[in-house]
Structures are given as structure tokens and as C-alpha cells.
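Chain X:
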Amino acid sequence: MNNNELNERRLQATPRGISVMCGFYAERAENATLWDVEGREVIDFAAGIAVLNTGHRHPKIVAAIEKQLQSFTHTAYQIVPYASYITLAERINERVPIRGPAKTAFFSTGAEAVENAVKIARAYTRRPGLITFGGAFHGRTFMTMALTGKVAPYKIGFGPFPGSVYHAQYPDARHGVSTDEALRSLERIFKADIAPDQVAAIILEPVQGEGGFNIAPVEFMQALRTLCDTHGILLIADEVQTGFARTGKLFAMEHHNVQPDLMTMAKSLAGGMPLSAVAGRAEVMDAPAPGGLGGTYAGNPLAVAAAHAVLDVIDDEKLCVRASVLGQQLVAVLKNACENCPQIVDVRALGSMVAVEFNDPGTGLPSPEFTRQVQARALEQGLLLLSCGVQGNVIRFLYPLTIPEAQFRKALDIIIHSLTQ
């Protein structure tokens, strides 16, 4: 069995709508390293799209899953509950930056968490409207596609989408959208599309993921909090990609000194197991009636066990601190590369949520072509990188925060060579 054979079988067995980036197939993985079915070794700077902040197969996570396997794998929490779900909720409630007592409910995917946050917000406010932002990514279900601010490839051919969803501008000084202009775009929505007293929630990523790792300015987030308080609107922070130490804090909202009413989380919550959550103010979380929230696999005990271990690893190995240290090292390399890589127009980072943006030096236009070239050069040297951005001209770096120092330095050398060769 080799990569080419598997690729032929994939094309016959699975639909084209499930796109696949890499031409090789994983056989095993350890921490920040992948090996394919032909024995090739790759440094993983994708981490399952930000799922593996604690690396592939962390021993503590593997041990936690193995221990749970010896007890039970599924009861459906809503039918027969179990203590580990409750204790995980308690641990998260203690650590989320939310005003007042918090409660947490578990689901399986990030999109599911966002869907349920919308349900909770509407149940609490008795309002229909939702405001999100251009460049946002919130998922692939119908409600989360409506919230997502990027057409290709997520929305093409799938409409119509749920109504009462409006898109404001996300602040992005690099592309001419100031904090003031972003706030004015919200006021235009209130004037032209929906009255503020009909808006249930404003939802945003503190750092946009798919949108290009755009970082919300502190003053913008604080202004949103004031705006929401003025009009009785809930503020939902989508921390699916930013959560669990990636930005140098457990949650990115901690950088803004702003407390949302609801938060969604998934990805690195369970270190590779499918688990998501909505946490929020207790009175808001209690708005849906009994039976209004849940799911057959929501809060699966194996995934819950893994999440307990993830929180332990983040604390024991000081991964928030390590995220800041590694991010600083990578940013220094990228900024030094600017002298020999005229395509670089911006380097931005919050902890280890790092991105570099490319334009064509001649035209000044976004260059997805150069982005793909850098990715290809890196992969030839054994480093897996992901792109993002509405124009596809940004590379994001999502290495496990547990990556060994020597391997990280090797990856930095590959990045330098890929940018400047």
C-alpha cells in the first residue's frame, strides 16, 4: 500500500466535496511528527487545524483514554450521566473569562457548539437577529455557514441560508478597516437592516482563523462589550481555534480584558478527540428548557477523559508561557526574512497564533500563488504548512505547543529557506 494507490482509491470511494490537501497518507504520529504510509517523516505545523496544541498522542492523553476504555465508552450523558462530564464542566467554569457564575454544556464539533450558542442566545433574549463579521469562519452547518463571512468554498451551491444574520466589518488596519469604521458598520446594520432590540447576539472570533489570523484590537472588543450592554445584546466569543493556550492565554479573550456572555470552544479542548463546548453566564445557559440542548454523542466519555488530561498538560507543561516564547521566536524569523522576501507585507501574532501575509511586489495585489509556492517548498523539505485568508494569501502556523526545541529550530530553518530561495 502506497500513497498513489490510496489516492486512487480515495477518488473512487469519497466525494470531491471532501477536498484533501496532502498527497500522502498518515500511518502514525508522535508529538509534532507525522509519518506517512511510505515512511516519510513530516514536521506537522498544521496540527489537525489547531486541534493538537498538546501534540499527537501525548502520553497523558493516551493514558486517560485507555483508562476510560476500561470503564465504559458511551451511555449518552442525557440518559445515564457520569461524573467526569460534571467535573470537566466545573474545571472550565472556573477558568472561562465570563462574568458571574458560569455553566458549560458539551457537544461534539465546533459548528455544533456555535449552533447551540445561537439557540441559547435566542432562548435567553427572545430575539432573532445575529451579527457576525466579514472573513469569519464559524462552521459548515446551515446556521454556521450563514454566520461565516467567506463564500468559497464554504457556501457555494448550498443556499438559501437561515435569515436574520448580518455581517459587519471586522477591524483590519492592514486592509483599511479601522476600529471606528468597523463600529460604524454595526451602526449601519442597526439603521438599515435590523433594530438593535431585535438582535440576540454579536458573535466573533477574537482572532479570526480562516479569515487570516486577524486580531481584534482591544479597544474594538471593549467597544463591542459596551454596545452589547447598551442594547441588551449577548456577546459570543468563538474560541474554537483560539482556545487552550494557542494565544499565550488559555483563552484569547483574556488578552482583551473583556468578558463575553457565551463562549464556544472545540479543537484543542480534547487533544484530537471530538469534543466541543459552550460556556456562559449561568442565567443565560439556563434559558433553554430541559431537552433543548444535547446530542447522542455530546460529551462522549472518552473525549471528556482526554479533555481532563489536556487541561492537566497545559498547566503542568506551562503551555501558555511556551506559546508566547515559541511565537516570539517565529515572529523574529519572519520579520528578518522580510529583507529577502519582498512578498511579505505583514507578520501578525498573538502568542503562537502566527501568520504571514503575501502580496505580489509588482502589483501590490494578494498573492495566493506565492503562498502555494512557499507551502510546496516547505513540504518538499518535510514541513507541513496551512494557508488561510479570504484571498488565500496568508500562511498560518499551528505547530503543537509541545514541539521539541531542536525540531522547532529545524522547522524555522525550513521556513527561512522556503521564503527566500
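Chain Y:
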Amino acid sequence: MAVAELTLIPIGTKTTSVSKYIAGALDSIEKIEGLTYELNPMGTTLAHDDLKILYEAIRRMQESVFENGADRVYSVVKIDDRRDKDYTFKDKVTSVNEKRKINN
């Protein structure tokens, strides 16, 4: 399973608000079969069995920001491509939380 975190930063817009750009980016990947994603306050976490599909999702998201009127997009991408076992990005969080000495 490959997991990616993508942060899109639209530049060259008329407002400091970026929510319309991020909403459009999420809409652009809605129909990608087998893709799971979760929006968080600082980016979007995406997961798929095929790394090529993740690259395609990232490309679509970035292009959608341009299509919605941004003149420039700064993107930060982190990828964890683990092939020795099946897991989800939520499993990664659960694993860490299980190992914490203090449970919140």
C-alpha cells in the first residue's frame, strides 16, 4: 500500500482563502477507483495499492488548482510505499497510539 500526503498552496490568487481550491482538488479525485483519502487541516492523505494511481491523483489535484484560477501552485508531497504488508493510513496512526505510554 502506498500512502501520500499532499499539501497544495495556491499562489497568485486574489484572496488569502484557499478552501475553494482545495475543494476543487478533492472533487478532481472523487471518482478514482480504489483511492482513499482524508482531508486534514494541513493537507490531504491519500492511499492506493498502485503508486501510479497516487501520482495521477496528485497530478489531478495540482492541475485543478490551476484550473480554478491560481497562477502558481506550491506542492509538498511525502510518500510512504510499503510492500511487505497490507495496511491503511489509519493503521499507521493506530500503531503509534497503541505504543504511547500516555493515552489521551
